């Protein structure tokens, strides 16, 4: 009798133990990055944790291989499948090699999205780009225009003349100029080939041949630093404003000394936040990934999926005196 | 298998001339089995997801491709040579398969080209080492850059994809329930290599060369020929691994299988093969492959960062190499 009672008690305890975690089951979302030990991705994880806190009942697993290889990520995805995670949000090292294993994950009922660096459409339910061509094109002009209420001459210092990304952004920028920024006059586009010395020479050339130049826009992290250095060296701070796409850690000194009012780049914190927000929405059935769908990304806003289920998060994030200190420590 | 070896002991030639303990190889395998069981138990206790047929099946993918190369690499290292170019051979063989695919090759043709490229690369290594008498470590560091370099020149930042559905079977297919094709092939190959190394005169010659090449030559062993065959076999296995991994990834990029050579060599050394040549067993290599697979997968289940995993594998390696030496020092037996 007593043995029976003991057994019963044990069974009851066991039942409670098994039922316990089941009741409090949280949504497990894996944030898989290209490699660990990268400031950009650590910042994305910070955003992911913010999203988890805001959504409640979400556990974020931040993981990635030591070296940025597709094989390493595949081993990680396999172990995530075994752990029955609810969703995988991945920044992929290879758009194709991860497709078979991510398909397997989807077959076993796991929500798969890619962010930052995408996976081919058959290997994920949706992809989140940090930004897109039109948004970047508009932002780089806006960065200059915001500090030129009277309008004036601006010039672009790009990477190489064959750089696909930069050329597309410059095209987009030229497109928005006449209607949105009529007072801004784009006088020249020069190419520094993402080489510090050539970029410096090109920047000097721009200043010499356009005496009324009010701003240099460099949509490349190399060019923007070179231009800001030239403006600093030639004592043109306050006369020529340098702006464009820059890494906060590299560019902080030029915001501090006034050579630049503001620059922009993708915000990894918002990116991690949005990836987790979207993965959670799709995994819990609150959102559906289909072309044309409008999905909420919480405090960051909203995205619209295109024909390939890709979406752009937001215009590049602006860094100025108010926040460069904080972000320069991140990336 | 060890039991069979012991029963044949009366006419057995010792693999390790400085063996202080009777049957050191046997106890080595016993140690590896103990480590494997311990890791299995720890994994089962640490993660509720480990003891699951599909998890265990997924686990095998962490070591089968590298394990296949490790089998041939074990023979090569026993003979006193090494091949550092195996990962690069995978990349080149995969690139060749991709090019054949563009040209309209079907699945059997792709497999033949993958394995054939591996074999040719191995023969190239073998020719340079045995023909010109160059040290294999230098030759294969060179061909490592050469083979992968060719793959990079052909592909650049592009990828070959669109392999036929029937090709996917090799890296993603299952023979029966959770038993994958990769695992079946690995076990079958292990049997073949075990037989060749431990049960044929060719295997004895490999040990003889590794232990004392001069004595082996005086005994009529054609050292260069045996070594050339071993390089060809290693290339061949890298070609086989290339077919599997290309099929598993469903695409080819020149950076494929980056860093695999060191993991393969780790498996071989962990498996008890002497890095100086002359000693080792296939059973040990198979156990080492299993251990590495379980460690990486188990840590993956616990979401342990990869760098901790590398540290653990490194410590394990030093430990298993140091253990017999410490043992010998402690019990102070004179070398035979």
Mean pLDDT of chain B: 88
What sequence of helices (H) and strands (E) makes up the elements of chain A?
Answer: HEHEHEHEEHEHEHEHEHEHEEEEH
Query: What is the rounded Rg of chain B?
Result: 20 Å
The pair of chains with the biggest contact is:
A-B, 28 and 36 residues
Strand content of chain A: 15-25%
By helix and strand content of chain A, what is the structural category?
alpha/beta
Residue windows where pLDDT falls under 50 for at least 5 positions of chain A: 7-24
| Sheet with the most strands: spatial strand order of chain B | 1-4
- The tally of domains of chain B stands at 1
Provide the CATH superfamily of the largest domain in chain A.
Response regulator
CATH topology description of the largest domain in chain A? Rossmann fold
The quaternary state of the protein chains shown equals heterodimer
Query: What is the tally of helical segments of chain A?
Result: 11
What does this structure look like?
The complex is a heterodimer of chains A (331) and B (336). Chain A has two domains: 25-129 and 268-313, Response regulator (Rossmann fold, 3-Layer(aba) Sandwich), CATH 3.40.50; 133-265, Response regulator (Rossmann fold, 3-Layer(aba) Sandwich). Helix content of chain A is 45%, strand content 20%. Chain A has helices spanning 2-23, 39-55, 70-82, 99-107, 133-145, 164-180, 196-209, 221-233, 248-256, 268-283, 324-328, and strands at residues 27-32, 58-63, 87-90, 111-115, 126-129, 152-158, 184-191, 213-218, 241-244, 262-265, 294-296, 302-304, 310-312, 317-320. In chain A, strands 2-1-3-4-5-13 form a six-stranded parallel sheet, sandwiched between helices. In chain A, a hairpin with a 5-residue loop joins strand 11 (294-296) and strand 12 (302-304). Chain A is elongated, with a radius of gyration of 24 Å. The termini of chain A are far apart. In chain B, the strands form two sheets. A two-stranded antiparallel sheet of chain B has the order 1-4. A two-stranded antiparallel ribbon of chain B has the order 2-3. Chain B is mostly helical and 336 residues long. Chain B has a single domain (22-326), classed as ABC transporter involved in vitamin B12 uptake, BtuC (Orthogonal Bundle), CATH 1.10.3470. Chain B contains 15 helices and four strands. Chain B has helices at 2-7, 24-46, 53-60, 64-78, 86-102, 107-132, 136-155, 169-172, 181-199, 201-211, 213-218, 223-249, 260-270, 282-301, 306-331, and strands at 160-161, 174-176, 179-180, 251-252. The longest helix of chain B is centred in the last third of the chain and has 27 residues, at 223-249. Chains A and B meet through helix 3 of A and helix 3, helix 12, helix 14 and helix 15 of B.
């Amino acid at each position: 009798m007593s043995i029976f009672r003991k057994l019963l008690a044990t069974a009851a305890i066991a039942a409670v133990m098994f039922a316990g975690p089941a009741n409090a089951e949280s949504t497990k979302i894996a944030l898989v990055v290209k490699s660990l030990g990268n400031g950009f991705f650590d910042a994305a994880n910070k955003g992911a944790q913010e999203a988890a806190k805001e959504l409640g009942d979400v556990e974020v697993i931040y993981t990635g291989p030591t070296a940025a290889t597709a094989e390493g990520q595949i081993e990680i995805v396999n172990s995530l499948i075994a752990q029955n995670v609810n969703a995988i949000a991945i920044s992929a090292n290879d758009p194709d090699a991860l497709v078979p294993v991510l398909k397997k994950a989807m077959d076993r009922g796991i929500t798969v999205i890619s962010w930052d660096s995408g996976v081919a459409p058959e290997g994920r339910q949706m992809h989140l780009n940090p930004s897109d061509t039109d948004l970047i094109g508009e932002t780089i002009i806006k960065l200059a225009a915001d500090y030129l209420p009277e309008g004036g001459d601006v010039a672009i210092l790009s990477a190489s003349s064959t750089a696909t990304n930069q050329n597309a952004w410059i095209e987009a920028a030229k497109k928005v100029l006449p209607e949105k920024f009529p007072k801004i006059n784009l006088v020249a586009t020069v190419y520094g080939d993402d080489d510090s010395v050539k970029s410096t020479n090109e920047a000097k050339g721009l200043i010499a041949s356009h005496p009324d130049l009010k701003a240099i826009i460099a949509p490349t992290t190399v060019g923007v630093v070179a231009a800001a250095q030239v403006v600093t060296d030639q004592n043109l701070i306050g006369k020529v404003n340098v702006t464009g796409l820059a890494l906060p850690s590299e560019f902080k000194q030029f915001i501090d000394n006034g050579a630049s009012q503001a620059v922009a780049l993708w915000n990894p914190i918002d990116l991690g936040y949005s990836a987790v927000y979207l993965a959670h929405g799709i995994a819990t059935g609150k959102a559906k990934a289909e072309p044309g769908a409008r999905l909420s990304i919480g405090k960051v806003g909203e995205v619209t999926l295109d024909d390939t289920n890709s979406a752009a998060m937001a215009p590049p994030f602006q860094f100025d005196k108010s926040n460069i200190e904080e972000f320069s420590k991140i990336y | 298998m060890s039991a069979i070896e012991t029963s044949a002991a009366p006419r057995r030639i010792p693999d390790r001339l400085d063996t202080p303990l009777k049957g050191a190889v046997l106890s080595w395998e016993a140690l590896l089995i103990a480590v494997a069981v311990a890791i299995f138990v720890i994994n089962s206790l640490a993660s509720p997801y480990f003891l699951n047929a599909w998890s265990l099946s997924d686990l095998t993918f962490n070591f089968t491709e590298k394990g296949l190369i490790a089998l041939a690499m074990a023979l090569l290292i026993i003979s006193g040579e090494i091949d550092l170019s195996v990962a690069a051979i995978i990349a080149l063989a995969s690139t060749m398969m991709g090019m054949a695919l563009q040209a309209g090759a079907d699945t059997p043709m792709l497999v033949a080209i993958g394995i054939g490229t591996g074999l040719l690369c191995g023969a190239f290594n073998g020719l340079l080492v045995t023909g010109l008498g160059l040290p294999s470590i230098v030759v294969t560091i060179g061909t490592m850059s050469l083979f992968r370099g060719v793959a990079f020149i052909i592909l650049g930042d592009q990828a070959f994809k669109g392999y036929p559905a029937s090709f996917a079977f090799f890296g993603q297919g299952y023979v029966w329930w959770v038993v994958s094709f990769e695992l079946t092939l690995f076990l079958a190959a292990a049997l073949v290599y075990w037989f060749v190394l431990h049960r044929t005169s060719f295997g004895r010659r490999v040990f003889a060369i590794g232990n004392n090449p001069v004595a082996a030559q005086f005994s009529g062993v054609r050292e260069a020929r045996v070594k050339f065959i071993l390089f060809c076999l290693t290339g061949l296995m890298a070609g086989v691994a290339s077919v599997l991994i290309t099929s598993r990834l469903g695409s080819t990029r020149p950076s494929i299988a980056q860093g695999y050579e060191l993991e393969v060599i780790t498996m071989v050394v962990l498996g008890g093969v002497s890095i100086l040549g002359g000693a080792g067993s296939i059973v040990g290599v198979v156990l080492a492959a299993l251990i590495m697979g379980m460690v990486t997968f188990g840590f993956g289940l616990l979401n342990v960062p990869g760098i901790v995993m590398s540290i653990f594998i490194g410590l394990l390696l030093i430990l298993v190499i140091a253990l017999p030496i410490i043992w010998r020092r402690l019990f102070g037996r004179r070398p035979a």
